[in-house]
Amino acid sequence: MSMDRSLRSKSTLERHRNVLSRAERILKLQEDDRWSETTRPMGLPKVAHRKVSVGKKEKTEKKPGEEGAAAAPTAEAEKKAK
To answer: Who's near 25: CB < 8 A, 6+ residues apart?
Structure first.
């Protein structure tokens, strides 16, 4: 049975958002030491919020003679044995 389109799993709800709330922007400014308690919360400067991408694994190349050559003689040997 499939899931209804209106229902979402937890992982799809926690996605990257480009727009941060005011509280999130203030926290980010505090981390970068660009915020002081005397600064007004209205008219905040822009905050870059970039998605961190995980590096992809490099694929290892398989030599054509390694796996295919080893499997083929055993299959032929089994046919001859029968």
So the answer is: 44, 47
Task: Dig out the tokens for 68 from the structure.
Answer: 């295919």
How many angstroms from the chain centroid is the CA of residue 9?
Answer: 16
Is 54 within 8 Å of 36 (Cβ atoms)?
no
Residue 47 backbone class (left: φ over 0; alpha: ψ -120 to 50; beta: rest)? beta
The contacts of residue 16 (CB under 8 Å, 6+ apart) are: 51
Which candidate, 52, 54, 39, 46, places its Cα nearest to that of 19? 46
Tens-place pLDDT, residues 22-66: 898 999 999 999 888 888 888 888 888 777 777 777 777 766 666
How far is Cα 12 from Cα 16, in angstroms, rounded to an integer?
A: 10
In the block, residue with structure tokens 């915020």: 35
